[in-house]
Amino acid sequence: MTARTKRLDKKDRSILNALEQLGGKVSAEQIAEVVEPPLKSRTVRYRIQRLRETGFLESLLAQTHETKMGLGDCKILLAHPQGRQELPSEILACFPMFYTWHSTFGRYNGTMVSAGFGTHSPEVITAAIDAFYDKGLISEHRIVENVDYVVMNADFSKIAPTGEWQWDWREWVEKSEEMIHSEKVFRIDMDLKQKPVDFDHVDVKLLSQLKQDAGATLKELGEAIGLSEPQVAARQRRLESNGIIRGWRWAFTNVVDKLEVCLFFETATPFHPVLNSLALLPFPRELYAESDRSFTMKIHMPSSYVTALLRGVTGLRRHFESIFLQTATDPHVPPWHRTYDCYSRRSGRWEFDVEEYIACMENLL
Predict the structure, then answer these.
(1) pTM above 0.90, yes or no
(2) What tens-digit pLDDT sequence spans the chain (365 residues)?
(3) H or E stretch at 310
(4) Residue 182: closest CA among 259, 274, 258, 99
């Protein structure tokens, strides 16, 4: 890809930081007002287009969280039996509630699945896992529910012109210790007691369209779901105010190979100050909470930094009740509408026919 030959200068990095802070749908005029050095809006538009053409800006993503609409979310870690390398994608594709899966290595060597489930019937996840055990596909598993999450802004000022991250891991540990000893509790806007909101099947159709193309115009969205532009805009605003749509973010492709690393950890006290140390990291990342003491941090970082991250976390390990790391590679992302198609307009619930999915799997074995 020609992207790899382009260098990121100070203006590019400033624009990337502005997109992180202001959101992926921010206008060039708004970016021009905050970047340093100052730029004209037409220059911002040109550079964003060039960043897209050269591959640094990969795709615009809609950040959503549908728990208030009755769609729960979890990560499933599946360990494969001795001698089995992976779960075939055809098997995992039988389950439309599985919306992403990766090969994973760490405490669990096998597959990491991101899955949705109706909050009224979480047993569909355990039923699928039981079927995997019955067929000898897995030897161990762990389910981590994601009750709420926040996206943490990357700091693109830490990227060299060549696109490589510049980060002092020793300094990070030292600064982290200072912050932890200050006993300043990590302040984070999370809602661990999600309350249902009013929605209908049209809202589900709108979210499905945004998952497919977050950059779609109001006109394009309206044509897809049968509404006028003002009606689409009103529904989108309501979904944003209810916290279903969290924002818009560009997926960033670095010039070095990128890996997804998940830290699963527990702390002794709610929102322990050790979270401040993870907030210092410059890489794109998200923090998921299962409770106020149980978290997952997903970090998008170069694979060459995994050893340094492990050493850094080892230096801070005494501040965690428990912690383990999983790497995730080879992502499979089936069409998002598979999950959204499982919303029943008749019942007003998410309905996953797990027995049908298991039968599909058995036919493939």
Answers:
(1) yes
(2) 344 446 788 999 999 999 999 999 999 999 999 998 889 999 999 999 999 988 888 889 999 999 999 999 999 999 999 877 678 999 999 999 999 999 999 999 999 999 999 999 999 999 999 999 999 999 999 999 999 999 999 999 998 877 788 899 999 999 999 988 887 777 778 889 989 999 999 999 999 999 989 999 999 999 999 999 999 999 999 999 999 999 999 988 764 457 899 999 999 999 999 998 999 999 999 999 999 999 999 999 888 899 999 999 999 999 999 999 999 998 999 988 899 999 999 999 999 999 999 999 999 98
(3) helix 306-316
(4) 274
In the chain, domain spans: 2-55, 66-147+332-364, 148-190+252-329, 201-241
In CATH terms, the fold of domain 66-147+332-364 is Alpha-Beta Plaits (3.30.70)
Which tokens sit at 23?
């959101």
Q: Is 11 left (phi over 0), alpha (psi -120 to 50) or beta?
A: alpha
What dotted CATH number matches 201-241?
1.10.10
